[in-house]
Amino acid sequence: MTDLRRLKLTRIEGTATLSCEISPCCFMYPNYGLQIGVSLNGSREAIKHGKVSMTSATGADVQALFDSVKLIECGECKGPAFDPATISTNARGLCPACMEKVSSAEFEEEMKLIEERERVATSRRHAHARARGFTHEVIAWLHPESGDDEAVIFHTKTDAKDEIEKILRKYGSVVTSDFTVTKL
């Protein structure tokens, strides 16, 4: 009988090496169905779910599930890529290298949007605080005795360390030195 926990399958298709193992969650959760993680040339794992319960799964079931995973040409470089019609993947029909490039570009674009939104929000927050007579912004971490640290932002009319520490103690922080002050 095959020990499914140790079962690893590999196949070669052209320049691609596909490998699979049963996902660890199949062994951790009762009644979890068969699921394999498949890697393409050692990277970019994708997931394939089977319709077999783990209590009745066999090595042949794993092999059949693995055999159902197909490859296509990458939409960018024509290298091997997972066929999204045959396996759950976020790679959109791209090979690991091209998907990494696309993901990095999307991440950078998203970070630019987030940074711009943060810059605008900070500018508005500072203008609102100045209009109310505040001169400094404090970004601090509250460290209550019970744990569950929390970040806070507040405004003051001073940058005096002892005054800020007093405010942090009032908030219930046992550590009163974890803050930065910005002049508005």
Structure overview:
The protein has 184 residues and is an alpha+beta fold. The chain has 2 domains: 8-95, no CATH class; 123-183, no CATH class. The protein has helices at 25-28, 59-67, 96-131, 161-170; strands at 8-13, 16-22, 33-40, 43-53, 71-73, 80-82, 136-142, 150-156, 179-183. The strands form 3 sheets. A 4-stranded antiparallel β-sheet has the order 1-2-3-4, covered by helices on one side. The longest helix has 36 residues, at 96-131. The radius of gyration is 27 Å and the shape is elongated.
In short:
Helices cover 32% and strands 31% of the residues.
Task: Show the helix and strand layout.
Elements: E1 8-13, E2 16-22, H1 25-28, E3 33-40, E4 43-53, H2 59-67, E5 71-73, E6 80-82, H3 96-131, E7 136-142, E8 150-156, H4 161-170, E9 179-183
Antiparallel strand pairs: 1-2, 2-3, 3-4, 5-6, 7-8, 7-9
- State the share of residues found in helices, binned by percent: 25-40%
Sheet with the most strands: spatial strand order: 1-2-3-4
Number of strands: 9
Along the chain, the helix and strand elements come as: EEHEEHEEHEEHE
What share of residues are in beta strands?
Answer: 25-35%
The SS-based structural class is alpha+beta
Mean pLDDT: 92
Distance between the termini: 71 Å
Low-confidence stretches: none
Rg calculated over all Cα atoms: 27 Å
Q: What is the overall shape?
A: elongated
Number of helices: 4
Major beta-sheet overview: 4 strands, antiparallel
Can you tell me the number of structural domains? Answer: 2
Task: Give descriptors for this structure.
184 residues, alpha+beta, three-stranded antiparallel beta sheet, elongated
